[in-house]
Amino acid sequence: MAVExxxxxxxxxxxxxxxxxxxxxxxxxxxxxxxxxxxxxxNWPGGMYATATLAGSRPGVEPTLITKAPGSPGGxxxxxxxxxxxxxxGFDGYVEMTRxxxxxxxxxxxxxxxxxxxxxxxxxQVSVVAIGSDVFDxxxxxxxxxxxxxxxxx
Length: 154
Fold this sequence. Notes:
- This protein is of the alpha+beta class.
- The chain has helices spanning 75-113, 138-147; strands at residues 8-11, 25-28, 39-41, 49-51, 119-120, 131-132.
- The protein has a domain at 8-89.
- Helices cover 32% and strands 12% of the residues.
- The strands form three sheets. Strands 1-2 form a two-stranded antiparallel sheet.
- 5% of the residues are buried.
- Keywords: Lyase, Pyridoxal phosphate.
């Protein structure tokens, strides 16, 4: 990492990385910072518990501890899916996808600003456009759009 003062970067690869849901990457500028990631619970009912993450039995971290639902991918599947999507898109692919995502968010924001009864929270900087309304129930709108196939966080 080349930014002064930045010691770590966390990214959810299942969002803009187009990797399987549940995958993330944590990068440290120096291995000396990695120890801050460890989690230790000394008074756990089963004895002392220590793991490299807060969720030590998550898929991909400790595959032998996974209790998974029938039909759900195991840890190795998530890791392989994440790795292959990163390799497939590559640096240039991610730059292009980011450009398209930000461009789409700008078009959505511009369109929403022209709809009576809808307002935008703040000035969206990248790709999250948060909307509200004083005229109608915004959650009802979200339900209708979700039922039409939109994928909204509400």
